[in-house]
Amino acid sequence: MYSLKNSLLYIAFLLSALAYGQSASVKGTITDNGSGIPFVNIYLKGTEKGATTDENGAYLIENLDAGKYILLASSMGYETYRRSFNVLEGQQITLDIALQFSAEALSETVVTGTLKPVTRLESAVPVEVYKPSFLMKNPTPSIFEALQNVNGVRPQINCNVCNTGDIHINGLEGPYTLVLIDGMPIVSGLGTVYGLSGIPNSLIDQIEIVKGPASTLYGSEAVGGLINIITKHAPNAPEFFADGYLTGWGEFNLDVGSKINVGEKADLLLGINYFNYDEIIDNNGDNFTDLTLQDRISIFQKWNFKRKDAKVFSLAGRFFYEDRWGGELQWTPEFRGGDEIYGESIYTRRWEVVGKYQLPIEENVMLSFSYNDHNQNSVYGDVPYLADQRIGFAQLTWDKSVNKHDLLFGSAIRYNYYDDNTTATANLNSNQVDEVWIPSLFLQDEYAFADKHSLLAGIRYDYDKRHGSIFTPRAAYKWKISDRDIFRINAGTGFRVVNLFTEDHAALTGSREVVIAEELKPERSVNLNLNYLKKIYAKNGTYAGFDASAFYTHFSNVILPDYDTNPNQIIYDNLNGRSVSKGLSANVDLALPNGLKILVGATWQNVSNTENGITQRQILTESIMGTWNVSYTIRSLDLSLDYTGNVYGPMRLPLLGDLDPRLEYSPTWSIQNIQFTYKGLEGFELYGGIKNLLNWTPNRNNPFIIARANDPFDKNVQFDQNGNAMATADNPNALTFDPSYVYGPNQGIRGFFGMRYTLF
Questions:
Q1: Domain ranges in the chain?
Q2: How far is 146 from 725, CA to CA, in rounded Å?
Q3: Is 63 helix (H, G, I), strand (E, B) or coil?
């Protein structure tokens, strides 16, 4: 009896010991309306423990220590599930989860299309949204360069020497693109390339892009489209952020951002960007720098003030300074402005202020304002360009809903000041500065006349003393076929008033004479855009998105630079005819549960000018373009791979005459990049890769890129009585110095390495 009793006690002790030593686990089934959801990602926050559901929606996470855990379950098309639980030593827990479907799970909130915060699916105007994570897949020192991977958008470099440029949307020139910060038109004319530099990625919440005229809401320059850079709301920003990288060419970029609580009533968002490149490289052997040397700093801060009833009050400011130069390799600052050694040297100082204040009344009335001051001290060889531009903008909007009408009333005033040392102001009011006030009124009404149908209509009135009254109406129809299918039709008009010298670098370089043939009229445009958006959420966790558009824009009074009539002149006048931009564009977005994500876009476009019955393709405009972004995450290694790139079809290039031996059309060319990112260290990301994998540069198959690089001051060029260059033994092709033959970057293949740190 004693022996049996002891044996039973021993067995009980052994079983309890085994149970006590067994590790804990959690298991369960994840369902949607009772059906198992396969390939759902589950992980325990703060640990490396996780799992993926099988084809029946079942999961199991083993080898857990005793303690408290937070379980997160996520799948494309569903709300993220979050639950905390405690586990004891050896305990087996069952957690069954029912995920909630969300058609809006991937629909970002946008404001650019209608000046109202709405989800992207509910916006009557098609808006493309890009997050900072998109920019990080191919790190660049400026947003200007980062946009090279956005379908239908192309950063255009306008000069081989100083590398300044602008942004083309759907093949339209840079002056047709309006750039905003937090909805305010802060960048135009002089500041396009500079305004898109120096904004730290850590401070960007998202970038919204509208393709097509938006002058009804934003006035002049929003003719071809607009880019709205939206900065973070301070409470949602990380406590500290730092991102720095170095390339094989010696480029160094550093972003630093921080959130600071200032008492109980204010939060401060502070960011600094510094970029430096000081290596002289001449791989194409023309004795000119392949890449402009740059040294710049940008300081940004944004204040958010806490007010009663959560009323909005924010104030942001940015200071930007840059010193850049390019030219002959022997150039030093001592040669600045002289005619011995050619160099293009640009000192830029600019500051900006942006603010929003919601009036302390019951109605939703918002006062928005911005101001920027841009000073540029430049020399192009021995040609000085000294310019000051100031743009002030104030806007009052009243957002009101009445029954099925969503109304927006607005009034705005814009102040433009421009002065330089060229004929741009010498021809205006006897060498007086160009200074103008443009008041505006606008009205917008979105009417939901059926459950799935809505109509948006708007009209704007601007008064410019130089051109009189300007009306810009627009209309948009939205058919919400389902929660995953949207069809839109947009029609609108746009207008633009031009300051030539602020927008065309070719007018200031080389030996071309600028000729203004007549008094210029404001440009006008009429646009039609059809858009279809489709989202697909599969049961296995796969997400697919399809976004396609067809666009047509007709311009009148187009102001075009004529490079062909006289190779030594740039002649500006209003086109006596028409200019048309038309095309098709599509983006396909695919995300698989195994960590593979693919974004592919393609655009076909035809931009042409017709005058005197002759139709000709617009210069420096590609007929086709494509972009792609392929990402794959190896979760077990905390490693991700990003393969990005673009491809551009042939574009007509500016030649200097029939004897110019350079290619009249560019080849089809592509820039491709690869990046590896390691996220295995808490708070840190290490990344590195290769840019321009194909080592493509525009000098391929060309005898040279810069014409007469050996004689940049045209000292040995002979001209006839009409001012045309003559063919001589020293100049058999009758060329003059000209760096404007450029359609892509001169940088070849190069590696890069960087590190990010984020503290939440």
A1: 2-98, 109-230, 231-399+440-759
A2: 40
A3: strand
